[in-house]
Amino acid sequence: MWNSILQIVVLYSVFAALIELAIRLATKLGFYSTQYTFFVASTGIGMVIGAAFVATNGSRLDSKSLPLIGFMIMALVLALLIFVPNLPSSLILCVFLGMGGAFVNIPMQTTIQQQTPPSMHGKVFGFQNHAVNIALSAPLLITTRLANAYGLQSVLLGMSIIVAAIGIWSWRAVKPN
């Protein structure tokens, strides 16, 4: 269960950092920084598509491998955003980022719900809520400072590597021996 909460926290940290990075990406592509919402909206569309895919195919999917696939999709997208030449291709990549997020979030939420005794729901989901709130706020400050110091491409690459490593680590943590 703790592994599931950690994966959800990482997921929301990536999405929070994406807000800062989307502002810089919009500027890099020649748009106003206020047009970063296109990237966020595309990620949301991807989450809906990913959720629909998991919902319709969930019984045929391995719930232990699905988060690994999601993290790998997210890591690949973050790395590819370094090379994105225009708005349409970056929006398509953001759709895939959201799909990867759904592949992580849905099985992890399901695991938490299934493994939490009813008498502990309030405590566990309260803790998860606080962890997600921190995950949504802390990366904004950290990402801004890192992007100012090292540049957008370096931060995207670093996030890509971290997301892939966490995906592999979390998969190995739940993989049967």
The H-level CATH homologous superfamily, spelled out, is MFS general substrate transporter like domains
List the uncertain runs. Answer: none
Please count the beta strands (DSSP E, at least 2 residues each): 0
- Main sheet summary: none
**Helix-strand pattern, N to C?**
HHHHHH
Q: Rounded to an integer, what's the Rg over CA atoms?
A: 16 Å
How many structural domains does the protein architecture include? Answer: 1
Gross CATH architecture:
Up-down Bundle
Number of discrete helical segments: 6
Reported by name, the CATH topology is Growth Hormone, Chain: A
Oligomeric status: single chain
First-to-last CA distance: 18 Å
Query: By helix and strand content, what is the structural category?
Result: mainly alpha
Shape: globular
- Mean of the pLDDT scores? 88
Q: What portion of the residues fall into strands of 2 or more residues? A: under 5%
> Which CATH class?
Mainly Alpha
**Helix content range of the residues, please?**
over 70%
